[in-house]
C-alpha cells in the first residue's frame, strides 16, 4: 500500500446490533433521501481520496457485504463485540502495511463531511498526535465528555457513565470520530483496557492513552447536526428532515421555485434546472432530472425519469423508471408513464397509461388510453408516430405501430399496425331498437306494481 503522511485510511464502525431500529435491515443500510446512510458517509469521504476503507461489521454482516459489492471497501468482522476500540482493531490486518493517517468513525453518523475530516488532518499537521471531533449539543444527554483548554488541547476524555458530576456538566461532547497516524493508532488501540463501568474497550481511550504518555491531543469542533447519530426510527426521521430542509434551500438558491417547500421531498440525486417550478406535495424518487423551465404540478411522483425543458407534469401524475419527456411535452392528471418516451410537444392530458412505448412529436393521446404492454409473461412495445391522434378510451395492444398522422377512433382496441395517415376504428356494430327502452320501463313498472298488490 502507499505510504506517506498525506494518505488516509478510514475505519467505519458498523458492528452494532441496532436493536432500537426494530428492523431486519442493518441499521446503516436504512436510507436517507433514498440512499443508505452508510453510502452518504462513503460518498462524502470520496473527496478525501482515501487509500483504503474498512467497514467493521458484526450482526448481519452479510447484508453489508452484499450492499458494498462493487465498492472498493473491505468488510472486517468483529466477533464478539467487545467495544468500539476492539472494533477498530479488527481493521488492523486489512490495513497491514499501510503507513499514514487512520480515521475511525461511526457508520450511523452519516452526515460527517470531508472538509471536517480535513480540519482534523490539519490539526495533526500542527503537531498533535491525536485529533478528535467534538460538538456541543443542546442537550448533552449521555454523550461522552471532552475536557479541553480554550486552545483545544484535550486534558481528558471520559464516558458519561464513568464521568464525575462536574465532568457531566461539561457541554463539549465526543462525536466518536478520531484521527491519528497509523504508527500511533495501533499501539494506542492495543493499549486500551476494559477497566470501566461497562467492561468494554472504549475508542475514546485512544486519546486518553495518548495524553497519559505525554502526547498532544486536540479537539476540533463542529455542529451537532453534522455528527448526529441514528439509533432509532425517530432519529432517522429527524436526520431526513434536516437533509430535506437543506436540499430545498439549495434548490431555491439554484433557481428553482418551490411553491410550498416543506411539502416537496427530494432524493439524494435529484437534478433541477433553472426556472423549474415545483408545486405542493411533489415527491422525487431516485434518478430524476428536470430541465430548465419545466413545471411539476401538485401531487406528482417521479422516479427514474427525465423531464425535458418546458415540460408540464401533473397534477397527480406518476413517472416511473424509464419515463422520458422531451421538450415541451405534457402529461396531465392521473397519467402514468413507465419505460416510455413522450416526444417533443406530445400530450397525454389525463387518465392514460403509457408503458413500454414511444410517442412521436406532436402526438395527442386521448383520455383513458392505455398501452397493453404485458400478456402475463412478456412485455411488448407500442410505437406511436409523429402527430398521431389517439381517441379517448382506446387500448393499443402491443406489439403495435401507429403511423405518423394516423387517427385511432375513440373506443378502439387496436391489435394490428396502423399506417401513416390512416384511420383505424375498432368498434362493435351500433344497434338501435326504436321504442325498446320505453316498452321495457312500462313492463318493469307493471311487474313491480303487481308485486305490491
Tell me what the structure shows.
- This protein has a 19-stranded parallel sheet that branches. It has a seven-stranded mixed sheet with strand order 5-4-1-6-10-7-11.
- The protein is α/β, with parallel strands linked by helices and 453 residues long.
- Helix 6 crosses helix 7.
- A hairpin with a 2-residue loop joins strand 2 and strand 3 (35-36).
- It has two domains: 3-227, Spore Coat Polysaccharide Biosynthesis Protein SpsA, Chain A (Alpha-Beta Complex); 233-424, Hexapeptide repeat proteins (UDP N-Acetylglucosamine Acyltransferase, domain 1, 3 Solenoid), CATH 2.160.10.10.
- The chain is elongated.
- Helices cover 21% and strands 30% of the residues.
In round numbers, the mean pLDDT is: 95
Tell me the CATH topology of the largest domain.
Answer: Spore Coat Polysaccharide Biosynthesis Protein SpsA, Chain A
Count of helices? 9
- Domains (count): 2
Structural class: alpha/beta
Number of strands: 33
CATH architectural category of the largest domain = Alpha-Beta Complex
Amino acid at each position: 500500500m502507499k505510504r506517506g503522511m498525506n494518505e488516509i485510511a478510514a475505519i467505519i464502525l458498523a458492528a452494532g446490533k441496532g436493536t432500537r431500529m426494530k428492523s431486519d435491515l442493518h441499521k446503516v443500510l436504512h436510507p436517507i433521501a433514498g440512499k443508505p446512510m452508510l453510502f452518504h458517509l462513503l460518498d462524502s469521504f470520496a473527496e478525501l481520496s482515501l487509500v483504503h476503507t474498512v467497514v467493521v461489521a458484526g450482526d448481519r454482516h452479510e447484508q453489508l457485504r452484499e450492499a458494498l459489492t462493487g465498492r472498493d471497501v473491505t468488510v472486517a468482522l468483529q466477533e464478539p463485540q467487545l467495544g468500539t476500540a476492539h472494533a477498530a482493531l479488527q481493521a488492523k490486518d486489512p490495513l497491514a502495511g499501510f503507513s499514514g493517517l487512520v480515521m475511525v468513525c461511526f457508520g450511523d453518523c452519516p452526515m460527517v463531511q470531508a472538509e471536517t475530516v480535513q480540519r482534523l488532518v490539519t490539526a495533526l499537521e500542527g503537531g498533535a498526535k491525536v485529533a478528535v471531533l467534538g460538538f456541543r449539543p443542546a442537550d448533552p444527554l449521555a454523550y461522552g465528555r471532552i475536557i479541553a483548554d480554550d486552545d483545544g488541547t484535550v486534558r481528558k476524555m471520559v464516558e458519561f457513565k464513568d464521568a464525575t458530576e462536574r465532568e457531566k456538566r461539561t457541554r463539549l461532547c465526543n462525536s466518536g470520530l478520531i484521527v491519528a497516524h497509523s504508527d500511533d493508532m495501533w499501539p494506542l488501540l492495543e493499549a486500551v483496557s476494559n477497566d470501566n463501568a461497562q467492561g468494554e474497550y472504549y475508542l475514546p481511550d485512544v486519546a486518553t492513552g495518548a495524553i497519559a504518555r505525554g502526547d498532544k491531543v486536540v479537539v476540533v469542533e463542529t455542529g451537532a447536526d453534522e455528527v448526529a447519530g441514528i439509533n432509532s426510527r425517530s432519529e432517522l426521521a429527524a436526520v431526513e428532515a434536516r437533509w430535506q430542509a437543506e436540499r430545498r434551500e439549495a434548490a431555491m438558491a439554484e433557481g428553482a421555485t418551490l411553491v410550498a417547500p416543506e411539502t416537496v421531498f427530494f432524493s439524494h440525486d435529484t437534478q433541477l434546472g433553472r426556472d423549474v417550478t415545483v408545486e405542493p406535495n411533489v415527491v422525487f424518487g431516485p434518478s430524476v432530472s428536470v430541465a430548465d423551465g419545466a413545471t411539476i404540478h401538485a401531487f406528482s411522483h417521479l422516479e427514474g425519469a427525465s423531464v425535458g425543458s418546458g415540460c408540464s407534469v401533473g397534477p397527480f401524475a406518476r413517472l416511473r423508471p424509464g419515463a422520458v419527456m422531451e421538450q415541451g411535452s405534457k402529461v396531465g392528471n392521473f397519467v402514468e408513464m413507465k419505460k416510455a418516451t413522450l416526444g417533443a410537444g406530445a400530450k397525454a392530458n389525463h387518465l392514460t397509461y403509457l408503458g413500454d412505448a414511444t410517442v412521436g412529436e406532436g402526438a395527442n393521446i386521448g383520455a383513458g388510453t392505455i398501452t397493453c404492454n404485458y400478456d402475463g409473461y412478456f412485455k411488448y412495445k407500442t410505437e406511436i408516430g409523429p402527430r398521431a391522434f389517439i381517441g379517448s378510451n382506446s387500448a393499443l395492444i402491443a406489439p403495435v405501430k401507429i403511423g405518423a398522422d394516423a387517427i385511432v377512433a375513440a373506443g378502439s382496441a387496436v391489435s394490428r399496425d396502423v399506417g401513416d395517415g390512416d384511420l383505424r376504428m375498432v368498434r362493435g356494430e351500433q344497434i338501435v331498437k326504436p321504442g325498446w327502452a320505453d316498452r321495457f320501463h312500462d313492463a318493469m313498472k307493471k311487474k313491480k306494481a303487481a308485486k305490491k298488490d
